[in-house]
Specification:
The chain has a 6-stranded parallel sheet with strand order 3-4-2-1-5-6, sandwiched between helices. It has a single domain, classed as Undecaprenyl pyrophosphate synthetase (3-Layer(aba) Sandwich). By secondary structure, it is α/β, with parallel strands linked by helices. The two termini are 29 Å apart. Helix 5 links the parallel strand 3 and strand 4.
Length: 240
């Protein structure tokens, strides 16, 4: 299926809402955490596919601020899985010349989690072949509110002027200020909602909904999402 992809029309940035791992596990009558662990294979496969295709940015929505409302055992398990994945997969990722960027309200995470994030960020900061963005403890509303607070602070200290504020100016206060907006957003499990993700950034993003639960979403399905994107006429509000 890769042979049918138009390499002249690839999205620079793809974002993915990985949904359905818990439901996949429940269907198989196993622990939801086992489902999340199994889903890691897909993350690595999609990451390698992006690098192979020459796509520059890939964002995974790993953990939202609302996910804290899940059972404590599941939250603990997800964080443990995240920390251990960083530890054991980091060297492989670094060998691929991948820069790892973390966005979200990181100060709410545990000390050990922040330590692993800092380590991965520091060791990969000079890598320039590919950019892997991890959205953890992230929400679109948090991102926008944080930007407003920072702008207000700079207005108060007179570092900026009211007349300077426009959409491009505002974008520089978001956690994604150095990351291009995604051209393609993929969501699995068939749910047709954004779940508080990239509310500002996806103003003109093409959205692809897959009915597959995330563990079932394989490389061929990823290629299919890209080919679907390539068939669309992106008008950005115009008629042409």
């Amino acid at each position: 299926m890769k042979n049918f992809i138009d390499f002249r029309n690839l999205p620079k940035h793809i974002a993915i809402i990985m949904d359905g791992s818990g439901r996949w596990a429940q269907k198989k009558r196993i622990s939801r955490l086992v489902g999340h662990h199994y889903a890691l294979n897909n993350i690595i496969d999609i990451l390698n596919s992006c690098i192979d295709l020459g796509i520059s940015y890939l964002t995974f929505y790993v953990f939202s601020k609302e996910n804290w409302n899940r059972p404590k055992s599941e939250v603990f398990g997800l964080m443990y899985l995240f920390i251990n994945t960083l530890k054991f997969e980091l060297n492989k990722i670094l060998k691929g010349n991948v820069k790892i960027i973390f966005i979200g309200d990181l100060k709410e995470l545990s000390n050990i989690c922040r330590r692993e994030i800092f380590k991965a960020s520091k060791l990969s900061k000079s890598n320039n072949k590919f950019n892997l963005v991890i959205a953890i403890n992230y929400s679109g509303r948090w991102d926008i509110v944080s930007a407003v607070k920072s702008i207000f602070k700079d207005l108060k200290s007179k570092n900026i002027k009211y007349k300077d504020i426009n959409d491009l100016f505002f974008q520089n206060y978001l956690s994604t200020k150095d990351i291009p907006d995604p051209e393609l957003l993929i969501r699995t499990s068939g749910e047709i909602r954004l779940s508080n993700f990239f509310l500002w950034q996806i103003a003109y993003t093409e959205i692809f909904i897959s009915n597959l639960l995330w563990p079932y979403f394989k490389k061929k399905d990823f290629y299919n999402a890209i080919m679907n994107y390539q068939k669309r006429n992106r008008k950005f509000g115009s008629l042409i």
